[in-house]
Amino acid sequence: MATSATQHDSVNYGANYTWGRGNLVLEQRYDVETGTATEWKYGYLSTGTLYWTIDPQWHQIRMLLPKDGPGRDSDPPNPVPVVDLRKRMINMLSNSRCANFVAQLLATVSRRNPSNSLVNADPLKVWDMIASSSQRGFSYTSERLPSGREASYALGSIGTGTAGIAFAASYATNTDGISRRMMALAALHETIHHAGTNTYSDRQLAEAVHEMRANLASLPAENDLEGNSNFWNGALNAACLPPVGGKR
Prior knowledge:
The protein is an alpha+beta fold. The protein folds into two domains: 74 residues, no CATH class; 165 residues, no CATH class. Helix content is 33%, strand content 14%. The chain is built from six helices and seven strands. The strands form two sheets. Strands 1-2-3-4 form a four-stranded antiparallel sheet, with no helix packed on it. Helix 5 packs across helix 6. It is globular and about 60 Å long. The chain starts with 25 loop residues before the first strand and ends in an 8-residue tail after the last helix.
């Protein structure tokens, strides 16, 4: 627990304070047709700062936070370059191939999932919603996939006022041009997840791409989370990844 956070009242709200502060710790979403529920869980430092989340597949995401007492990461990361990433997404979407792919993807996934309404068909407006004070914003995470590969994650949802994006930890220290290009693509990927009021899952997006491709490629197994993510992300890369030197 942090003990020396700036302007934190450690005397009255120290590590032994057990009454809580009203932070959201459990989020349950029910399927009205099946009655089943999925759960998201959230943990906090004694200062009230979000420190970890657990999604319905029990992936724990620990936030990288600036050094500020015990329990924090040893070195502060660079702030998420929110403005630069938005500019890079504008550049990607200025290419008609990318813009048309994203538009078709969002139209398809929203049509296939009518109970999860589209927040906005413009990814930049969705990004701005995530960046607003009413949502969670942007952070870094050291969480890795079961394969050991690092990854970025869409956290929460716009519909619950908890939408955020946790970028892979390496982006905090690798700031070269190629890393920024890949981080911008990750930003677009996670923003597309948040285009659904309750987020679109990797499976829902993979199914949408599968339909867009006229079912030419086989879908991964439904419970293969990494496979479904790679399936639709491969199509996103092909349409939107800006090439080195600016030429495709």
